[in-house]
Amino acid sequence: MCNLLLPNTIIRNYPLFGALAGVRYADIPVVAAPRGLPQDATGETQAFYEKWASSLAHSASWVSRAELIEAVERSRIVWEENRATLGRAINEVDQWRETCVQAILTFMGTYEANQFETRMVFFFDN
Question: pLDDT exceeding 70 applies to what percent of the chain?
Answer without folding.
Answer: 79
